Amino acid sequence: MSQSISAARVAVLVGDFHRSPAYTGLADALRELIGDGRIGYGTRLPSERDLTTELGVSRTTVTRAYAVLRDSGYAEARHGSGTFTRLPGGPTRAHDRALWPTDVSSGVIDLVCAAASAPPGIAAAYAEAAAALPAHLGGHGYYPAGLPDLQARIAASYDDRGLPTSPDQIIVTTGALAASAIVGKALAGPRDRVLMESPTYPNAVQALRAGGGRLVTVPLDPEGWDLEAIAGVLARRSPRLVHVMPDHHNPTGLVMPDRERAAYAKLLARHGATAVVDEAHHTLRLDGAPPQRPFASYAKDAVTVGSASKSVWGGLRLGWIRAPHHLVDPLVRARVGMDLGAPVLEQLVLTRLVTGEFDAVLAAHRERLRQQRDALVAALTAELPDWTFRPPAGGMVLWCRLPTAGATALSIEAERHGVLLAPGPSFAPEGGLDRYLRLPYTVPVPDLEEAVRRIAAAWRAVSVSGQSATPPRDRRAGVLVA
């Protein structure tokens, strides 16, 4: 059954839209709300008569605004049922393109996908792994928990960080998202709640709900974690799982201090909640600060998810789960219901990296990210001095606060200028955050500098008009408006 939205609610959401002419302003406001998810895909809009009364405008204004929505692909009329929201190209064309990394046209700079090209040394590791592969061809090739040598090396990396871990606590997966989906399927059923921060990485939301868990959110303050607010949500909603991203949080870049990790872990234990600790970015420290202790060293029942795709290369689709002993069996059983193991060749590659040149590969990766982060910070400071941000100490992204709400409108306008952006609402599971923008620094310095120049031009256009004009055609069809 389709959901609907009342005229009164729409009036609140559109606010004081520009009225020169009014139908264009109303259409632009509605397009932003649909694009950033505050009015969901497939929602029945109010009747023209009801919205006319609520807004105090003419019937012609609403009629023409709805016509603009339909013509630009943001609505469709269903005979006898009303007008329903849609998105150009379908639901995957929402402005949360962080969920859908794709190839882009020549000359377009993609600042949606926070992933870098492979650092030096990866090709050699693949060549060594390919040479070692024949020794494994005589077996069945299925390793639901991972190659034993790789399990041992990952376990040793936790030992080195002060978190004693045995190889049988490690489950190697096809990426960190697959690891999160396994955790969600094994530990959170349809009657269980899953607590997520807002903002957060949008793919993690989908992954952790693989078992049907119900989403609960808690705001993440720009300055850090509000443990008092988290305690209140834990007491009221009793979530089964709590997603925590304490190291170079995506998208904010925040790092949780050790004292807050200890306090947070005590809260979780008091309320019987299991932490799902996302450590995808924990190796990407860029400023030489000492690492924090693993969150799981404070929370003995925590399940930790790691990633080779961020610390090494996105094409190396491997992740892992580090779990307490009593949860390993249900996690492996859930994993077998999804796949029977990660590819052997990739596991051999990662085994060679973590037993040989990993420090050198990681150092090269960090140095490149450091240079690109500093270039992005300098370009933003020069071109957009009224934007505010905190230079992140690590990770791959910078979280910007705009002077006024309009990140979704900016993403539409920036696409005309040849830059793809992920606005704040992409990272808000229940909507909002249209005053924020995530900018990855994972592309080369010249591209970052050119991207900021284009973004600045787009921001000026949005600021002058108050809204973006009709959005460009679906870029998946290969057509972008300059």
What does this structure look like?
This protein is of the alpha/beta class and 482 residues long. The protein has helices spanning 7-14, 22-35, 48-55, 59-71, 122-132, 148-160, 176-187, 202-208, 227-237, 258-270, 308-311, 325-336, 344-355, 358-383, 407-416, 445-465; strands at 75-78, 82-85, 109-111, 170-173, 193-198, 214-219, 241-244, 274-278, 303-307, 319-322, 388-389, 397-401, 419-423, 436-440. Helix 1 crosses helix 3, helix 5 (122-132) crosses helix 13 (344-355) and helix 6 runs parallel beside helix 13 (344-355). It starts with 6 loop residues before the first helix and ends in a 17-residue tail after the last helix. Mean pLDDT is 89; it is low at 92-101 and 467-482.
Observed structural traits:
single chain; 482 residues; seven-stranded mixed beta sheet; five-stranded mixed beta sheet; globular
* SS elements, strand count: 14
Q: Classify the beta-strand content into a percent band.
A: 5-15%
Distance between the termini: 39 Å
Radius of gyration: 24 Å
- List the helices and strands in order: HHHHEEEHHEHEHEHEHEEHEHHHEEHEEH
Basic shape: globular
Major sheet strand order: 4-10-9-8-7-5-6
The averaged pLDDT comes out at 89
Low-confidence stretches: 92-101, 467-482
Helix content: 40-55%
Estimated structural class:
alpha/beta
Query: How many helix segments?
Result: 16
- How many strands, what sense, and barrel or not for the largest sheet? 7 strands, mixed
